[in-house]
Amino acid sequence: MKKYYVYMVRCADEYIYVGITNNLERRIIEHKRGLNKSCFTFRRRPLELIFYQDFNDIGQAISFEKKIKKWSRTKKQALADGNFDLLEIYSECRNATHYKYKPKS
Question: Which domains does the chain have, with CATH numbers?
Fold first, then answer.
């Protein structure tokens, strides 16, 4: 069965890059060596792998990657650290228009 990996690397400028691959070891080596000058991470090296999760279904992997790409850096870091309490806090809506903040009539 083929495996797919969603991964996060921390760049030298503290940016957290999210990617997907079917060969994690090879892909991290490619990032670190900077084999492709047009790659987003090329000028942000050195890189450090901080998180990965494997999937058996490519659709689930793509969906998860798209989801976490939209997250803030602090929320991504909470996931990488395995700090699920903090991740839950960062996931809460803090918008003033959110139903939690509307006065009850």
Answer: 4-101 (3.40.1440)
